Here is the input.
Amino acid sequence: MGHNKTPAAMPEITLASRGMVDGPSGPKPTKRLSRRNIMIYGILIVVSLYYLVPLYVMIVTSLKGMPEIRLGNIFAPPVEITFEPWVKAWAEACTGLNCDGLSRGFWNSVRITIPSVLASIAIASVNGYALANWRFKGADIFFTILIFGAFIPYQVMLYPIVIMLREIGLYGTLWGLVIVHTIFGMPILTLLFRNYFTSLPEELFKAARVDGAGFWGIYFRIMLPMSLPIFVVAMILQVTGIWNDFLFGVVYTKPEVYPMTVQLNNIVNSTQGVKEYNVNMAATLLTGLVPLAIYFVSGKLFVRGIAAGAVKG
Here is the structure.
């Protein structure tokens, strides 16, 4: 009796012995310190340091006083942290004839960026939607012209646009610069929206047409709710490009309405008085905070939208 094996135990013994013969199953475990991983992480660390070290120098310099900066050790953390350079960069630094810091330029940049981003994204999204789903006569020619416009150097168009803005009475104004940014942003944004809308299921569009939905009904009720990632991509591209723009700002506006980047250039390149490197660094960081904050808040959607908008062409 004691040597008899029950039928229920037989499959377990068979399976165990089979596992001992065949060996363990499943994927082979990878080594954490393999040559491939060391190379990949090594490259990533080097690239990260390449971008983070200058940012670190800017931050620590902006928190130092001038006596400490004159010691010459740019990598040393501040012995005594001071926010006076940030206050001066925002409200007291001279940007020409005015010595009110970057605050005026900040609000000018806000008044330029918001309408430019909204107008360019609205127009480009409708263009991309029409090119993807509503084929009309001459659509390919229109799309080719838009793409060609994305690769024309800005410098070629500077003087003709100056004449056009002067003729309509908008040269040297914020609204003139808003029009320029809106026009120059449309080609690449139209391409992004067109590719994204092409990647959406065509059955949804056809079903909406069968149900009687028209051009705007499909756009607002179906396309927009499914297009949040590409709208985030367009917003980040436009906010970053418009906020960081210097060329258009210095050409198409005047000192009273200079954007923040032009004022930053006037602070950094000032030849009068002592070079206040801490103020210059603080002013540079203040200028870059807005696009940096937007990217960190919506970074995941940015990657999703870029991937979806670049799959089809």
Q: What stands out?
A: Residues 103-133 form the longest helix (31 residues). Residues 35-82 form one domain.
